[in-house]
Amino acid sequence: MPTVQLFVTCLVDSFFPQTGEAVVDIFHRLGIGVDFAPDQTCCGQPQFNAGLRKDARAIAEHTIRVFENTTGDIVTPSGSCAHMFRHNYPELFEDDSLWLPRAKALAERTYEFTEYLVDKLNVTDLGARWDGALTYHPSCHTLRGINVDRQPRALLAKVKGATLIDLPHAEECCGFGGIMSVEHPELSAEWLKRKISSLEASQAPVLVVTDAGCRMHIAGGLNRQKKSQRVMHIAEVLNGK
Amino acid sequence: MTTFRSRILESINDANLQTALDNNTERRLKGRAAAFESIPDWRDRRLRANKIRADVIDNLDAYLEKFIAKNEANGVIVHRAKDAAEAIQIVLGIARSITNHHLPTTKTLIAKSKSMVSEEIALNHALEKENMQVIETDLGEYIVQLRHERPSHIITPAAHLKKEQVAELFHEKLGIPYTIDIPTLTATARKVLREVFLTADIGLSGVNFGVAETGGVCVITNEGNGRMVATLPPVHIALMGMERIVPNLDDLALMLSLLPRSATGQKLTVYTQLLHKPLENQTRHLVILDNGRTRLRNSPLKESLYCIRCGACLNACPVFRELGGHAYIGSDLSIAPYPGPIGSVISPGLLGENYVQLAQASSLCGACKDACPVNIDLPKLLTRVRAGAVNSKQSSVISGGAGLTRSTRFGLQMYTRIATHPRLFAASQKLAALTSSLFAPFSQWIHLPAFTGWGYSKDFPKFAGKTFRERYVKRAESRESEIDNAYSSNPQSPVTNHQLPIGRHQFTEELTALGGHVYNVENATQEIIKFLKSRNINKIHLEPNLLDEGLLRESNIEFTHEPDPQIIVGVTNAICGLADTGSVLIVDGDGSPLKGSLLPEIHVAILKTSNILPSLPDAMHLVKDTRAAVFITGPSRTADIEMTLTIGVHGPKEIHVFLT
Questions:
Q1: Nearest-by-Cβ selection for A55 from B363, B416, B480
Q2: Within an 8 Å CB–CB cutoff, is residue A197 touching chain B?
Q3: What pLDDT is attached to residue B494?
């Protein structure tokens, strides 16, 4: 039986374990095993984006070692972490002839979850069912970082019972930006306001994302503003019955 | 709160500014998208443009050597400045050598068109200190100069102002009655600045591209001021950053297909000038500036030198949309010369540590990279600035955290320790879950206070009681696949390769859309006489050997071959037309056709239908051996006040093309 390695990401692991469980369920339904290397932690993106490259390298080296002891494709329910593996790890080890090939080997095995389903497994219809309206926010790193957009949309289009509504100004950043939301809360707040008004304009009760970062940011804003809309990871929607 | 953050908050709370920025963003994004529709192969073009720029920067010394040698052979006086101080001294030296002929009471007058390099080296300030008068002639620049401000956008300098503010300013400084009528405001500037062009001792401009193969200096302008300063005063100084080279005219044509589309949503800027030799009785100086570019070239930020200054990344950037250009400040509170995503890389890259903090104000959303016509990976460069690339002598960066607050740095470094020790990681998750339950026993969310940053506008999720790693149960065997694995293959979108009809029809359509007029005529002289009579005009500036001069005399039309600012109509030959943009090519020659197509209010061009070429690249060979040439694409225009398109700023208000 084919098996994939799950890089679940620190945010899903700590805050949204249900996303990870949905990913496992979906793969099992497709007859694919899921392995979880227990020593995995975080990809190091917060440090990398902050400019703390020494720290980012330490975490990247740890992650590379963890997955070198495993086989098979690596799948992650995050465009952002996939982008980190694919583009930022090679950047981190650019001048390191020892680590660069190891980083690139990891990058070549790594896929974002929806990308893996559609491009690698050629599946769009997961037999999912969802009653009601959905709207999709393309996370920045999924959309522009790894150019994954048609895949999640194709998967959502096959969800029975769901009405897909276009989110106005969908491609605009929600204002998370990792540490930017802490370093520049004033900026982050403005974009969050815009994103929430776009969501309201769409009239959809559920916003679908491919990244736990955007989820915790937008859902945190909705909760603060006492709004009723929910934010869900696409895996949870695709696991709906 | 840092000063930078309070400046950001000021911008956010400035309602006028926010309206102006929203308008700027929306129009620019729409305009750009529409303009790119006419070149379906733009993705391919921008990859080619990236390759060209990369090659230029890699081999910059050789290209510059060629470019300079060509210019010297063309009779241009070339200067190289290693930094701002040297550049200023060079310009001052040129200005003083002219002032020597002046009465001591007369100030040297410098008419200036837009130049970002001059902003970078703070040239105006230095010249004014030496008792010289510098007048900005781009409408937007003129407005910000009158307000004693710096431009807030590299393409639309007054993007932060509303028309009421401009109306107030013109009323106060120029003594006209208060009016918010944009054409009236524009016409006032035209009148005031026309006098400046005609009396200036020196014209000073920037440079968009230098063509290594021919030495050509390409300066593009919509209003016509860039032509005025390069054509009318006895001395022209062109100020260019040393990286602004393209290898040859074909590469220039490619860049010109991307730059105006990205900058203003135009297929071609109204005036695309190529200057080779100085005009008659004109001296041209070319000042080539380093000012940190050589250092940048040898640093991890090298790619930022590919920039062609279109401003598309500013318009696409959600940070710029909140801030405008004036909130990008250094730790000494000075406004960075270059705002927006590219500015947050090159302002610290060229001018140092002071501006490093700008790079932390980004979510790395990548909208800038998407918009860049030369495909610069701006998010990557921003992370490199954060990683300390500004001070790096190596080609890679290994530590840093430049511009980061101390508390965030400490927190992240703690997290590094945790994330490199899996057992500590799992234990910390448990501890965090426990603690967050204490803070918010009955909710999924924790209400953090504003000072934490996160708590400023959102709640924080509670840590899961059971993490994924705890819930994960490895199933030795999975069930049989339950769902139908049938998949649909992705239909490839059919590539339609329909050829656009080229020639007269397209030329007419394009030029008419820009507000120009096109006539198909048998006898140009007769038709032009009819046109002039209908307008009650009886004197024209005429390029020699173009019309039947006997017939003109018989019809009582006076003509001169000398440029004269009082004359309303200039009639020139067009060497060729461009079908896809509605442009005409005018080259320098007898009877000053360059001035004839610039000074009068109405420009009449005679074009042979057989000389309509498909597109700019097809015409590049025609400009190669000229003294100076300009592609004219519609009447002079501006959108500097509230992005409202206004016709006839400095150049002609009307263009009439007679096709023979």
A1: B416
A2: no
A3: 31
Nearest CB among B8, B363, B450 relative to A175 is that of: B363
The identity of residue A144, as a single letter, is: R
Q: Coil, strand or helix: which one is B97?
A: helix
- Quote the CA–CA distance of A176 and A217 in Å, as a whole number: 6
Among residues B560, B567, B551, B642, the alpha carbon closest in space to that of B603 is found at: B567
Chain A residues near residue B478 by CB distance under 8 angstroms: 1, 27-28, 31-33
Interface contact flag, A52 B485, Cβ < 8 Å: no
A161: number of Cβ within 10 Å? 10
A220:B459 CB<8 A: yes
Distances (CA, A) of B252 to B76, B255, B461, B586, B627: 20, 5, 53, 18, 17
Q: A53–B400: do the CB atoms touch at under 8 Å? A: yes
Preferred mutation among B397, B478, B479, B489 to probe A, highest tally of A CBs within 10 A = B478
Provide, as residue numbers in chain A, all residues whose Cβ is less than 8 Å from the Cβ of B396: 94-95
Helices B406-419 & B422-439 angle (0-180, nearest 10): 130
Tell me if the pTM is above 0.95.
no
Amino acid letter, residue A195:
K
Partner-chain residue, chosen from B8, B319, B419, that has the shortest CB–CB distance to A42:
B419
Alpha helices in B336-492, H assignment, sequence order: 340-351, 367-371, 378-386, 406-419, 422-439, 468-471
Other CB atoms closer than 10 Å to residue B531's CB: what's the count?
Answer: 18
- What CA–CA distance (Å, rounded) separates B194 from B599? 9
pLDDT tens string, chain A, 241 residues long: the values are 799 999 999 999 999 999 999 999 999 999 999 999 999 999 999 999 999 999 999 999 999 999 998 999 999 999 999 999 999 999 999 989 889 999 999 999 999 999 999 999 999 999 999 999 999 999 999 999 999 999 999 999 999 999 999 999 999 999 999 899 999 999 999 999 999 999 999 999 999 999 999 999 999 999 999 999 999 999 999 999 8
Helices B249-264 + B15-37 axis angle, to 10: 140
Residues present in chain A in total: 241
A58–B contact, CB cutoff 8 A: yes
List chain B residues with CB under 8 Å of A17: 464, 466-468, 470-471
Instruction: Calculate ∠ Cα B527-B531-B534, nearest 5°.
Output: 140
ipTM of the shown complex: 0.95
**Ranges in chain B, pLDDT < 50:** 395-396, 474-501
pLDDT averaged over every residue in chain A: 96
**In which residue are the tokens 């939301």 written?**
A181
* Residue of A15, A53, A122 with shortest CB distance to B464: A15
What tens digit of pLDDT does each residue of B85-135 get?
A: 999 999 999 999 886 655 666 789 999 999 999 999 999 999 999 989 999
In this structure, what are the phi and psi dihedrals at residue B132, rounded to the nearest 5 degrees? -105, 155
What are the percentages of helix, strand and coil residues in chain A, rounded to 5?
55, 15, 35
Question: What pLDDT, on the 0 to 100 scale, is given for residue B111?
Answer: 97
- The residue assigned the tokens 């980061």 is B404
Query: CA nearest B458 in A: which residue?
Result: A221
